[in-house]
Amino acid sequence: MSDRPATRRRLLALYALCLGVLMIVLDTTIVTVALPSIQSDLGFSRAGLTWVLNAYLLTFGGFLLLGGRLGDLYGQRRLFLAGLLVFTVTSLACGLSQTQFELIAARAVQGVGGAVVAAVSLSLVMSLFTEPAERAMAMGIYGFVGAAGGSIGELLGGVLTQTLGWHSVFLVNLPIGIGVYALCAALLPRESGSQAQRSHDVAGAVAITAALMVAVYAVVNANEIGWASVRTCGLLALATVLLLAFWAIESHVREPLVPLRLFLLRNLAAANVVAMLWAAGLFTWFVVSALCLQRVLHYDPLRVGLAFLPADLIMAAFSAGLSARMVLKFGIRGPLVMGLALAALGLALFARGPVDGAFIRDVLPGMVLLGFGGGMAFNPLLLAAMSDVDTHESGLASGVVNTSFMMGGAVGLAALASLADLRTGALQRAGSAPLIALNDGYHLAFWLGALLTALSALLAMLVLTPMQRPTEAPSTAGPAADHPAQRGAGFDQGSGQI
């Protein structure tokens, strides 16, 4: 009986942490429905609009691994609260932005805060719940909340944009952030942090983040200044040099941000490539379909959010346990390949939508297929990355594939959106009607996203080593928590955050 108050306190701390994760996950998808309103109000170009997402995704992905390392050094609780404070304050700055620069700058800093919260929160959950059955329960709740956040993002974004304007999709974080900060400050146990002398590898984090931001900037602006221009080629060359610098830093630093030996592991290396290709298709779906529904089919923001609801509900159902049970029964490779194939087919269906398309005929089938595909593929993708590493490195492996996912989504979205814009401009100059040209540009982005997703399915089928599945599904009440399918219960779907 004496343990009951302590258990209740840990559960309350878990719910507070999950609420913080919910806010971070929401911020990835809630913005997509508001993009046309942001573009109209602040005057973004079609290609430049991707920076509203990419500024957040790039700093988020770039600082995920460093955030975890800093938590080890200075204390998980302290870093979580600091990241939460940065995220909440910059959410206010986003909501009050009046210019393109203000919004993009605030989104970039917001990504840093979100990365710290995301990197540290899972470690805090694992430190709060050390007994296997309790940890499996806590990870299940954590994973479900993360998936639910991604799932309701478009719907909530549609409601807020429709009723209160685009600023509200950022300002909604204020009451959540303040409440989570107060709860976690009161409930999380204090800690001093590791006193070991460790390298932060700030240089590695700066090099990889700068490389990707330079590359995305070059791609986003290539349509306006020319793909073969000196400026575009020079920026891409600079990005290459920065990537090589990152590789050199990781080869020589005492405690690298990403130990390069990990990429010699077959499943981990393949999972990272699969994650990058799939993320390009996934973010194309999130962003381009939301734009297409509003600009081509003339949906209002609320109707856009409702259009995503079938996919959201399907992915939430898989995150609640269907995905883990599929892995336990069929292993990793089968559900992953099938899920990616269904997602590729869903994107291909979007690529055939006419300018006078109907929801039941032209929107719903693709949404349903992408819901099933994403729901089936997300959990096995993380498990594939973790299957070749020791238990003590599973967090690092998941962080690496997380980073690959976010970076693949950012770079892929920038490239595909730029190519879509290039296609639209060429058709308009050739005499096509503006709406038809715009729709054909979106079709190109969907086809390319479908191709990249299909390539990820092919790679998963040919390269990944099948994981031996157990003879019977283990119970979550005991050692089953040590099975990879149970460790993977914390895979955050919907947002692209693993």
Verbal overview:
- The chain has 498 residues and is mainly alpha-helical.
- 77% of the residues lie in helices and 0% in strands.
- The protein has 17 helices and no strands.
- Helix 1 runs antiparallel to helix 8 (173-187) and helix 13 runs antiparallel to helix 16.
Topology order in helix (H) and strand (E) letters: HHHHHHHHHHHHHHHHH
CATH H-level superfamily title of the largest domain: MFS general substrate transporter like domains
**CATH domain topology of the largest domain:** Growth Hormone, Chain: A
The secondary structure category is: mainly alpha
Q: What is the number of helical segments per DSSP (H or I, 4+ residues)?
A: 17
Measure the end-to-end span. 37 Å
Concise overview:
The chain has 498 residues and is an all-alpha fold.
